[in-house]
């Protein structure tokens, strides 16, 4: 099979990146693996380092850089948004309530997609809104499957407890009643990516006068089903 694109410098740069996929490599190792001349391998690795596609570890070896992870995350988010929007609309129409998707970004969760209730009293969360990771059913879902150390740190200022997150893991969904905002309730479920990792949370939210003080009893089933449809669509799109 011909692996040449016809753009020589690009093909050689990709050879360097492919070589680093196996792990850290010295310049000598890059030369041996890629078959490039030493000056060429060095020039390309340094240029890739400038663009953060390559990095150097504590031993001075070349490793894949952080920009690749950023691009992969952006591609994953684009794929998520593409497959999720029809499901969001269906869930909104089924429940009659506002629906959102949240992704964690450090100490906050970002609303990356939404389908709003057309009229009447509603819980409006505009796309791009940054909400705390210390309250709300989406925050519970995004934290519930974290590793123990990160989980412990996140619980320090949270309005929910470790027992709450254990319950979320057990039943596969979360609910909140006036936790983030008085008078507002929500139900959330995890959207999973590669390897079953939780990458986002889908939520239904609205006033407690409609959701009641047990919103999960009303909407856990539809929210979990919507999360599973998006998870499956993500799996198919990445295959």
Fold and architecture overview:
Helix content is 49%, strand content 20%. By secondary structure, the chain is of the alpha+beta class. The chain has a six-stranded antiparallel β-sheet. Strands 1-2 form a two-stranded antiparallel sheet. The longest helix is centred in the middle third of the chain and has 30 residues, at 66-95. Keywords: DNA-binding, Transcription, Transcription regulation. This is Transcriptional regulator, IclR family.
Question: What is the compact description of this entry?
Answer:
With 239 residues, the protein is of the alpha+beta class.
State the shape.
elongated
User: What does the main sheet amount to?
Assistant: 6 strands, antiparallel
- Summed up, the domain count is 2
The secondary-structure element order is HHHEEHEEEHHHEEEHH
**Average predicted local confidence, pLDDT:** 88
The CATH architecture of the largest domain would be: 2-Layer Sandwich
Which descriptors apply to this entry?
2 domains, 9 helices, single chain, about 240 residues, Beta-Lactamase, alpha+beta, about 50% helix, elongated, 6-stranded antiparallel β-sheet, Arc Repressor Mutant, subunit A, two-stranded antiparallel ribbon
Topology, please?
Elements: H1 8-20, H2 27-34, H3 38-50, E1 54-56, E2 62-64, H4 66-95, E3 98-105, E4 108-115, E5 130-132, H5 137-144, H6 148-154, H7 162-171, E6 174-177, E7 184-192, E8 198-207, H8 208-211, H9 215-238
Antiparallel strand pairs: 1-2, 3-4, 3-8, 4-5, 6-7, 7-8
